[in-house]
Write a structure and sequence with these properties.
Elements (H helix, E strand, L loop, with lengths): L8 E5 L4 H17 L3 E6 L8 E5 L4 H17 L2 E9 L4 H19 L6 E8 L2 H12 L3 E5 L13 H6 L4 E5 L4 H16 L1
Helix pairs in contact: 2-3
């Protein structure tokens, strides 16, 4: 892969066998840390068609890749997409409208417009993982496409804790390519912004 800079996405299927998951996870972490290309992992829970796609939008780098790939899949399979943003249950109405505007801006920036096969919704919830799981179960989505966690992950959870909770349905998790230097720099900016 180092000799071929045309690789845009390495897509893997998470192994069903628990015995193979640890080794696969270690290899996957090495590929992610190399920063050579975008990486996707499908947690297949018996997907046989793709007509309804759910995309939780956090607004980060990996989320933007999820938006783009969801639109490509939807066009190919004539599927519908629900882009959602999870907000706190107690969010007041003014901030609720700001979050909808943010969701519209992120999707439009990534795709150039809001596709006719797409819906944008704000979902209230106690935490993002529970809200996404609830949505996926309530509306019977064929596939959830989600961007990976952007912070430092724990060993064995290369995509973050939230993704680990969501995989009760078929999920495609994506990590956008970024060099180790760019990744470090983004983390520094995030840490500084949290302190401010």
């Amino acid at each position: 892969m180092r000799g071929d800079n045309n690789v845009r996405l390495m897509l893997f299927k998470w192994p069903v066998s628990e015995a193979k998951q640890a080794e696969f996870g270690k290899n996957l972490e090495m590929i992610i840390r190399s920063g050579l290309t975008n990486v996707g992992v499908l947690f297949d829970q018996g997907i046989d068609r793709v007509e309804e796609i759910l995309v939780p939008v956090g607004g980060g780098l990996h989320s933007k890749l999820a938006i783009s790939l969801a639109e490509m899949l939807a066009q190919a399979d004539h599927a519908n997409i629900d882009f959602i943003r999870v907000v706190d249950e107690d969010l007041d109405e003014d901030l609720y409208e700001d979050q909808m505007a943010f969701l519209q801006e992120v999707v439009m920036t990534e795709l150039g417009n809001i596709p006719g096969n797409a819906n944008l919704r704000i979902v209230r919830g106690k935490d993002p993982a529970s809200a996404v799981v609830g949505e996926a179960q309530e509306r019977d989505y064929d596939l959830v496409i989600v961007g990976s966690f952007e912070g430092q992950t724990q060993p064995g959870l290369p995509f973050g804790e939230v993704v680990d909770k969501i995989v009760r349905t078929s999920v495609l998790v994506l990590r956008q390519h970024q060099s180790p230097a760019a990744s470090w720099l983004r983390q520094q900016f995030k840490a500084r912004n949290k302190r401010s």
